[in-house]
Amino acid sequence: MTVSGDNLAIIIKESVQKLFDISLTPVAIVCDQGTQNRRMFSLLGGTIKKPFTEICDQKLFLVYDMPHLIKSLRNNLLNGDIQIGDTIISFDDVKKTYDIDSNSSTARAMCKLTSAHLAPNAFQKMSCKLAVQVLSRSVAAAIKTCVGTKELNSSTALNTANFIED
């Protein structure tokens, strides 16, 4: 059974009131980016410029959980390059580095990655674990190593590595 965003907003307001009644002070509401949760945040008055609501005269921040944000970021990268200002981030750099690493006759840097990380099916796209592993510091380091050894010749590779690392 799915609870609507409208009902979630009511439940949240009532629950927060009860928490205050027993002297607990919540500071944030954290959830994934499901349709109902986005609707709830909207009904509670949350916006990009005002990512909080006020219940019982107390400010509560409205926050999407980090693993699901990383998953959404990975899924957007799978759909194509992302431009941030003048910087282009490309998932192709991750794929090319994986290919270089997979064909290495020495130790592998990306040994945890599989095809499910690089070309996930619909079910695998829902996995936060796969997204976090592919957007990890070790993957960023592998990209930088391949650029440094001149095995990876890409105008976006260092941007991609720095973005993943940061």
Automatic annotation (TrEMBL):
Residues 3-45 form the Transposable element P transposase-like RNase H domain. It comes from the Eukaryota. Residues 68-165 form the Transposable element P transposase-like GTP-binding insertion domain. InterPro entries: TNP-like_GBD, TNP-like_RNaseH_N. This is Transposable element P transposase.
